[in-house]
Amino acid sequence: MTTLTPDAPQAERATRTYPAYSRGLLARLLLNREAAVIVALVVVFLYALGNVQYFDGPLTVYNLLKEYAPILLMALPMTLIIITGEIDLSVASTLGASAAVTGVLVVEHDLSVPVAALVAIGVGALLGALNGFFVAYVGLPSLAVTIGSLALYRGLAEGLIQDKRVSGFPGELRSWPTDRIGDTQYPNVVLVIVVLAVLFGLLLHFTSFGRSVFEVGLSDEAARFSGVDVARTKLILFTLSGAVAALAGVYVALKSNSVATDTGSGFELKVIAGVLLGGVSIFGGRGALHGVIAGVLLIAVLNSALQLDGQGSEVIQIIIGLLLVGSVIASNFLPRIRALLPRRAVTPEVTTKTPDTGDHTRKVAQ
Q: Which CATH number fits domain 17-346: 2.60.40, 1.10.3470, 3.30.70, 1.10.260?
């Protein structure tokens, strides 16, 4: 702690500040990308309610959540992976392979749906672990690894199904994920999403493992010197990504009552778009799970509203693409805006020593 005397130079008595607390609580809560995405979601939703025909119908929220449930599921572990500075482009192919495993086991081998689902989730975890092994222990770039496994796992699904479509799941369990919760407009799969979102949120923001995820994203080397097992962290994250993608594959298979070779094709782009739109830095080291959930829901609301408004798929893709690019550009301006705001000086207590009174503690004068 700094020791000052009455005769110390003025420079030594300069006020010390702590940048992390130099802005007010309201500014810290509102001037960030997550808050901006949540505000955008509310504005777009309210605008669609008042201006898009049929958007306020009883089936709108139900269909929106039912269709985007697999995207929400896969976005949860993808958030942690991108925060570490890596990426997983194979999630949709893992979903397709796991859906194919579920369909083959249930329809062709008469396994029960719960047993087939557990096997499929295990297969998905293994596929994710394979990605994680090459990234974490072999040292290959995740972009190259998951581009390769994207094609490999899609080929696995095609090998299992061939050129036919597997259909005919048992009705007693097939409809549960899409059945409504009581008299609400929310499908049962929302319960699964909420539970996993809470678990991943606690893991990322309230555990030492979550702190290590951010440390790895900021600097692999610094994380190693801090005692973080970087390779194990990445392996766990890719394994979780594969398992959750497989769970999403089981859901898609039951929802559609069929599995084809192209099941889930293109989902990986929606997942990554939702994660980046939700405020996660593509360079790693930054992000929050509530922003990602809002980002995925914003894409879902935009997609639903534009479809009901009669817009073609090309217009929808252009608007969502512009929104994503704009969110990335905006991330460069938020720090500049925050830098222009007045900062509060946080005055620490320091020990002073005088010849007459000895040691006592006081605050440094500003």
A: 1.10.3470
